[in-house]
Amino acid sequence: MMRTRPLKVALLGCGVVGSEVARIMTTHADDLTARIGAPVELAGVAVRRPDRVREGIDPALVTTDATALVKRGDIDVVVEVIGGIEPARTLITTAFEHGASVVSANKALLAQDGAALHAAAEEHDKDLYYEAAVAGAIPLIRPLRESLAGDKINRVMGIVNGTTNFILDKMDSTGAGYQEALDEATALGYAEADPTADVEGFDAAAKAAILAGISFHTRVRLDDVYREGMTEVTAADFASAKEMGCTIKLLAICERAADGASVTARVHPAMIPLNHPLASVRGAYNAVFVESDAAGQLMFYGPGAGGSPTASAVLGDLVAVCRNRIGGATGPGESAYAALPVSPMGDVVTRYHISLDVADKPGVLAQVATVFAEHGVSIDTVRQSGKDGEASLVVVTHRASDAALTGTVEALRKLDTVRGVASIMRVEGE
Amino acid sequence: MMRTRPLKVALLGCGVVGSEVARIMTTHADDLTARIGAPVELAGVAVRRPDRVREGIDPALVTTDATALVKRGDIDVVVEVIGGIEPARTLITTAFEHGASVVSANKALLAQDGAALHAAAEEHDKDLYYEAAVAGAIPLIRPLRESLAGDKINRVMGIVNGTTNFILDKMDSTGAGYQEALDEATALGYAEADPTADVEGFDAAAKAAILAGISFHTRVRLDDVYREGMTEVTAADFASAKEMGCTIKLLAICERAADGASVTARVHPAMIPLNHPLASVRGAYNAVFVESDAAGQLMFYGPGAGGSPTASAVLGDLVAVCRNRIGGATGPGESAYAALPVSPMGDVVTRYHISLDVADKPGVLAQVATVFAEHGVSIDTVRQSGKDGEASLVVVTHRASDAALTGTVEALRKLDTVRGVASIMRVEGE
Ligand SMILES: NC(=O)c1ccc[n+]([C@@H]2O[C@H](COP(=O)([O-])OP(=O)(O)OC[C@H]3O[C@@H](n4cnc5c(N)ncnc54)[C@H](OP(=O)(O)O)[C@@H]3O)[C@@H](O)[C@H]2O)c1
Ligand SMILES: NC(=O)c1ccc[n+]([C@@H]2O[C@H](COP(=O)([O-])OP(=O)(O)OC[C@H]3O[C@@H](n4cnc5c(N)ncnc54)[C@H](OP(=O)(O)O)[C@@H]3O)[C@@H](O)[C@H]2O)c1
């Protein structure tokens, strides 16, 4: 099926990811031609600063008018690696209107407007692919949408943000505090100057929304994702985790309820056992653990970010979209037929590790235990330690709903004998 | 694109895998319909023993005449889960001739006759999918062929046989010998009555041939794969591995040569460092580590066998093939355009761990070291230990070709002072 007319690709954005996409398109041109069945040609590159020197890019291709580029009408595939909501969103819909298919790495946009973008793609019978939007180089969207298409996914639990994993891994291995580990991540280029999107879990929440949508064939909006950052994880939390044979990871967790009738999606730090495959994911690596009815437990591991890894995922999509175009077909679009309700965080059921600062006097444990019992939260283990009138209680619960746990903690705070709730950490992966 | 005419599926084989395929097709019928865009209907089930009770299967569908079933002409997809070369091969080509696409889990057949089967599929413009043939439930073929289609794969190194991983894991964790661990694997159903295909590496070699072919866009025949079983791995080897901070795994390794101009594929036991992601793959699990130019290091992990996990992979393919049929398209076929030469084992470059039984007298080390030097094999470390006139030398080399190592060992055996070569083990993943 080799044909000679090249497929024309418009590259929107030529930064960390875009420059690598352009580079590989040039250096691997022969391979891409063989795999696609036709040559691919870079037809234009839209950027903000046209005068920047861009190695390997023909200056004649560079434009600041991205809109004109996607409206040209002869573009086969638009690769959107600008990021952010606008102008990316309008450019993508304009691309569909003008006959192009789209490959994007834009998790923020996909999480916020995935449904509308998919609808636009479908209306114009075009492809929208975005493997790079979740977990960088790791093939994940395609395995979930296609390889597991005959299976029923019950749980997706992943480390989907490299910056926070780097920080937590540092804290775990060196005993450093959060700020110290963040400073090192910044110095090494693993954290941005403003790390909010990463450390507050916004980036992971966008990915959780995308993953939950695909896994459960249900639209999951960004607002549906419970989100808690990892800025309050302390060295003391790591010490507690170690005592339990655990480490702490920032996890994105998408779950089907036990009765199958609803789903949840959340991002928060959690303790996981050291023998869980996710526990040994080091540095800025990402990994996603998937549980399904038939396949059982799967894990996908690799670099979650970086120009060249992300470009690998973009190019895999580019090849697929080009092949679809040549074959006159489109790949799988949005699948939201299940339309399951997304339950609030209160309905999530898991285990908890709670550290309390309490008065060091008789009867405190009984008081505390009563509060747990009254809220229907069953205690697995309690550890008391105390000296000099100060004492601490570490409670690990059995599985209970987040709502019940929240009620328990509120009641505990009201006890005279409880001086403070030092930390509450969910325990996952057991 | 919902249409009402159901797609007709012929199931060839209804054993461990086939019965699970049939079960999921029934229990998940609604999901499959939604994901495919049309209902799928089990149109016939070919078996050897028609009178066996098969739960959930309409006896009217059961036949012993698989040939007539694939010749019916109204079959959309043939799912081949009989196994072995014949009649599977003829049934698959007959299926293509009569208008069906094919999903198969048959690694032995794909490794031996993949090129001919792909050619038959292409001739009739049909799909041939076989995700289940390598590493069971783990999405691997699709990520390699599609997600990494824009990247350049340099190395695929995997644990692709669950039986042998179970045995080696047992030996590692309990100190058991090979036979004892094999007996336990057999008792627990992880090893077949005749374990030859697993323990001698035939099963892994078939998978290595398939993986190398896909990864390097080059036909790799089963005969091209160097194969060494794991029946001679001893408790002493595990002790040596531990001393080096390693464990032992049976690995399938497909590599592009450093100059990119040729490839190799091989299966053999090897030491790998404990901190390598493959080292912590326990029990009967499989995992495949992939290194590529742009993506870097990826790993795919999950159950490598079992009826239900394997059925998950078969059904993912079934959904894809059905969708292709409805869309009037076919998925990616064989990609062998690179046609790189497959080099013999002698060209493989790696490190080696060699245990020698030697005479306990002065000058032995110098003699041995001279032999290594004469063959151009550079020594990394040597450890001598001895008592009562018996001594042993453990040599770990730098990277050297297999040919150079073989020459070295031959020469060592001729030395009077070398009483025996207790073991030679490759060291990978550093
Ligand atoms: N970096 C990663 O590791 C990674 C990983 C996964 C996904 N992603 C996603 O990939 C996308 C791109 O990320 P990145 O790291 O490559 O970003 P980046 O380095 O900031 O590059 C953004 C590019 O977009 C261009 N641009 C910005 N506004 C524009 C506009 N209005 N019109 C035309 N061009 C415009 C910029 O032009 P100038 O060059 O002139 O500034 C720059 O070339 C984002 O969606 C991100 O979430 C990134
Ligand atoms: N089992 C696994 O975990 C696994 C994992 C990955 C891949 N695979 C692959 O999947 C395939 C099937 O494996 P399996 O474990 O399911 O094998 P199995 O349990 O032995 O089942 C084989 C089935 O094929 C039928 N059969 C045998 N010869 C036949 C013939 N001439 N005509 C029609 N039907 C015939 C048998 O009929 P009866 O029922 O009447 O005996 C049986 O139903 C093999 O290629 C295997 O390599 C298996």
From TrEMBL, chains A, B:
Family annotation (InterPro entries): ACT-like_dom_sf, ACT_dom, Asp/hSer_DH_NAD-bd, HDH, HDH_cat, HDH_CS, NAD(P)-bd_dom_sf
SUPFAM superfamilies: ACT-like (SSF55021), Glyceraldehyde-3-phosphate dehydrogenase-like, C-terminal domain (SSF55347), NAD(P)-binding Rossmann-fold domains (SSF51735)
Sorted UniProt keywords: Amino-acid biosynthesis, Methionine biosynthesis, NADP, Oxidoreductase, Sodium, Threonine biosynthesis
Keyword Cell inner membrane among record annotations: no
Keyword NADP attached: yes
Catalytic activity reported: L-homoserine + NAD(+) = L-aspartate 4-semialdehyde + NADH + H(+); L-homoserine + NADP(+) = L-aspartate 4-semialdehyde + NADPH + H(+)
Domain ACT: residue ranges: 353-426
Entry-linked PROSITE patterns: ACT (PS51671), HOMOSER_DHGENASE (PS01042)
Lineage: superkingdom: Bacteria
Required cofactor(s): a metal cation
EC identifiers of the protein: 1.1.1.3
GO molecular function: homoserine dehydrogenase activity
Stated role: Catalyzes the conversion of L-aspartate-beta-semialdehyde (L-Asa) to L-homoserine (L-Hse), the third step in the biosynthesis of threonine and methionine from aspartate.
Family: Belongs to the homoserine dehydrogenase family.
NCBIfam families in the record: PRK06349.1
Identification of the protein by name: Homoserine dehydrogenase
